[in-house]
Amino acid sequence: MAKSLEFERPLLELYDKIEQLKGLSNGNDNLADEITQIEKRAEKMRKEIYSNLTPNQIIQIARHPNRPDSLSLARLICDNFFTLHGDRVYRDDPSIIGGIGFVKKSRVMLIGHQKGHGTKENIYRNFGMPHPEGYRKALRLMKLAEKFGIPIITLIDTPGAFPGIEAEQRGQAEAIARNLKEMSDISVPIISFVIGEGGSGGALAIGVSNKMYMLEYSVYSVISPEGCASILFRDAKKADIASLNLKITAKDVLKLGVIDEIIKEPLGGAHNSWKKVASTIKRQITKDLNEFNVQSEQEIKDQRYNKFRQMGRFTS
Amino acid sequence: MSILDWFANKKNLDKKKSIKNIDKLNIPGNLWVKCPKCSEVLFSKDLELSYKVCSKCSFHFRITPEERIDYLLDNNSFVELDKDIKPVDFLKFEDTEPYEDRLIKAQEKSKYLDAIIIGTAKINGIPVNIGIMNFFFMGGSMGSVVGEKITRIIENGIETKNPVIIFTSSGGARMQEGILSLMQMAKTSAAISKLSSLKIPYITVLCDPTTGGTSASFAMLGDIQIAEPGALISFAGPRVIEQTIKQKIPSGFQRSEFLLDHGMIDNVVHRKDLKKTLKNIISILQAQEENK
Description:
heterodimer
């Protein structure tokens, strides 16, 4: 267990001890009793820790290096998943993946932000921060899906769209804006899951959907807490206060009416069992696609439009 | 005292000196204004008569919605819509001060309830729907009210078939309204999609600055996109980019002319020519072909 989170440390120490004891016991019955007791205690501790997480701790889980990535989930969720590449204009952006496959008997187009595990892969994936061509690829694939009547699944996991010179030159703002506009009018259902970090416009650019879900320990925010802290609090170290104020956890975002439901994660977070996460997502997709099956194209478009139309709070 | 302290002190002294100079120039009242770009000292009355553009270097000063109405629209043609929509502090957001207090201050200072006004008006006799953002209200940031009013002026355009023109000037999404600010990007863009499918012209005029969530939604979705000279237009601001890539960014980067070079906007138009340009564009887009 190399990659541990600060608040998980006491728990992991306990598990270490259990392992040590197991090694020592060699089938000794006296020790076996003790081991089960400690195991029970560890389980209890895990539950306690995970039922009282602060937004700041949830962000750490959302950014956990072992958190399941889009491509791995796609392969677990879909049968016969075949990846599709490139925006047909400039290049293939490794920060966004896409492809077609089956979920049970339904065809799907799955698109997602792609982070890496480990430094080398993360550099290749640009830490999941797309350039304009990534969003243009995503849009190309969505249009392709629409043409063949294939429902669209998007997996959201990005710190945000990449802030860089070339990204600006090639029209980062335009690429995101165009996706928002075009997605609002796509005639096939779109189902989105925030699986890790939902970072601002870069996340929304593949998130204008009919149904929107967040994994239990994912976050969705208008700006990263660090960014907010350095702008509003004039101190990047105040990210934890910013994260409290911004209301970015799944529970908060649900309360604000932006998502439909929270997808439960295995105890201890999604990084403990990718398979379980994938099968929960798969179940949700199947359920939703059955609902959409009986809806007309116009109904699907209208539902999406009306959902976003009523977002916002003001008085008059 | 280290050498760094010495530099810092000197910098502060210089600052103080230059502030003093400006103060002197401003006496009496606000008769004189110094151009922030070329430092030319301009007579306030002249500046107002020249569309708040520096007569020496063409620097375009940021202007208020009233000034824009005055420069651009036919006299007394502007009828404000949805004037009474007010922002609320639904997150109880508090940074260095509570959002609620910030709103009250901004409202008192600007005499507006939020960072945009919308309405119907005429440009050389042509009826149009107009939205004008106000950078002087919390940096023109987009929260629920801005998103709602933009959506409404577009929906009104769908009903009346009037072309919709939006003047953007905004730092992006309003952080104090959290995720719902982000959702305004989707809401406004979806409305534009509807307008677009009905072939009603949608024109954006990008003014200094247009960045973040504003540029990444309704600002960049115009059928025709015009910018005022020298406006900062970007997704990520220069400071954020410098911090990320740890490099100095080239001069002129993310200014209107840079965007024109990179194919992101249709044209850069001087403020004094905006009215006739808009009139021309709309009359061409809306002209009925005779021999059809």
